[in-house]
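Chapter review. Work through the record for 4-hydroxy-tetrahydrodipicolinate reductase before attempting the end-of-chapter questions.
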Amino acid sequence: MKENVKVILWGLGLMGQGMAKMICKKRGFSIVGAIDLDPSKVGKKLYELLEVERTENNDVVILDNPEEVIKEKAADVVLIATASFTKAVYPQIKFAAEKGINVITTAEEMSYPKALDPELSEDMDIIAKKNGVSILGTGINPGFVMDYLVLALTGVCEDVENIRVSRVNDLACFGKAVMEEQGIGLTKEEFVEGVENDSIAGHVGFIQSFGMFEEAFNLKFDKIAQTKEPIMANVERVTPLVSVKPGYVAGCKQMGYGYVNGELFVEMEHPQQVRPEMENLSTGDYITIKGTPEINLKNTPEIAGGVGTYAICVNMIPHVINSTPGLKTMLDLPIPVAILGDVRELIK
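Structure tokens for 4-hydroxy-tetrahydrodipicolinate reductase:
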């Protein structure tokens, strides 16, 4: 039998811990390192933080110094769950790749990084190829629901006239960084000001999804537009992290529009909020493809964002390890599938 697939976790927030717990349940993995800057986590054993049974595959100390963990060929892959933006995770990706370790990151912009950061993307591709590793950014969205899944559905179409995608989701499963990006808990005036000065990111990913559409369809959008509006709470909405009082921002409704030859080709709607069910709102994923044939896909409730993000990252590990070196997107790799058996059997 082959050696276990060795994994390093960089970032142990909700997504990082989710990946770690999932890996602990799977056969053929060993977690050989864990990194986080939170003083309350540093020095703990990983299994203690996760509150899982101690095994030889999760008995590592959480450290705050990457240089003590990420050493030459120390792992097969490092899972980075520290930030949403390419510029923020680039130094971490570079550090790991130059040590000969494959990288998968939850950073939303990394799902299609050349959309906003072509120079950094080219640099990462060069670094990856030089060191014989692969780099991938993915997650539930961007990376799957509003782009990859949509593209797959068009594979049974003779032609496509236009596409509309809507994802109504609950943010309660996400951590502090996502809450801040969405403006949760702000006043309406603070939200509007945050949109104007770019401190409210809202959903990070529409630009990347549009980039995936352009590449996959071999077309060029002549105009891309986005809007952001606050979703105001009418009742108190409570999560483990925040309590949003009535009259304050509970989420962000974001719209994206992609035009081809002056006509709307892709419309994306993404109202993200905490605890929508507290105001009798249902979550769900909705895809309408006007073409031949017409496709209407409805999934309620939503594909859970937290589980979906950490699961797709873990499930893509074999594909990333097996891939040719370079910076990859989901378009470059085999379809994501659940790891049901021993992961070692999936490694070529």
